[in-house]
């Protein structure tokens, strides 16, 4: 994993550099994507690139590539890093202006960086026992549907979860469950699979969409709901988190209390098998 892409060039990862005047560094004026790669092939690549385009458009940053060019660029990067099962991180900033200024410049080129990281299967104990999560107040900015690099609130919440002996923090805003610090949330409530409906404060997760697609295909009773209350979440028989790099994890402890039987549930097991089949197809 020692080759990075920076503004049209493939360079050694430890030699990759951007200007200290880059607005991504100064203002988090940038967006990103993380694409899971199986056997050298990006999973859900078009969906990730389409979301990248939406995020760029929301921040009024010019997309420097079309989907075909992005795909070719990332394919080359994956090959240069040996292929296999990895993840690819892509970041596009508004670029580096001549001086630090809050006002948006109009005459600079976007900065593009990308690199690969190794990705391993979750430990057997995580699959067998599930993970712990806590609930926290959502202090993030309003436009979480934009995959911005402004992630400080997410980072601090994730650290608070780790300090509490948990793997993830599930964020609550105005009496409703939103998502995790880096994941979407599903819950089985009275036999029905529920997930919060998309809005400005929830990222349209690619794995989230795939899980809903599998549920529809396999006849699982499911719904996207406007309000999944913390009480409903606490009473759920199963809770899951989904993300591109973690796929789908069962939450078996929430705020110190067991979820359902305290073990991964049958619907999670069924969904994980179906998702694994898709990723390795």
Give a short synopsis of this structure:
This protein is of the alpha+beta class and 281 residues long. It contains eight helices and 15 strands. 30% of the residues lie in helices and 30% in strands.
Explain this structure to me?
Helices cover 30% and strands 30% of the residues. The protein is an alpha+beta fold. Helix 6 (206-217) links the parallel strand 11 (192-196) and strand 12 (222-225). The radius of gyration is 19 Å and the shape is globular. The mean pLDDT is 96.
Helix- and strand-based class? Answer: alpha+beta
Biggest beta-sheet profile:
9 strands, mixed
Q: What are the segments in which pLDDT stays under 50 over at least 5 consecutive residues?
A: none
| Number of helices, counting only DSSP H or I runs of 4 residues or more | 8
Instruction: Please give the number of β-strands.
Output: 15
* Terminal residue distance: 24 Å
> Which architecture of the largest domain does the CATH hierarchy give at level 2?
Alpha-Beta Barrel
For the structure shown, list the relevant keywords.
9-stranded mixed sheet, D-amino Acid Aminotransferase, Chain A, domain 1, 6-stranded antiparallel sheet, 281 residues, 2 domains, alpha+beta, 15 strands
Lay out the secondary structure:
Blueprint: E1 3-6, E2 9-12, H1 23-27, E3 30-38, E4 41-42, H2 45-58, H3 67-80, E5 86-93, E6 111-118, H4 124-129, E7 131-137, H5 152-163, E8 168-173, E9 176-180, E10 184-189, E11 192-196, H6 206-217, E12 222-225, H7 230-235, E13 238-243, E14 247-254, E15 257-258, H8 266-279
Parallel strand pairs: 7-8, 7-14, 11-12
Antiparallel strand pairs: 1-2, 1-6, 3-4, 3-5, 5-6, 8-9, 10-11, 10-13, 13-14, 14-15
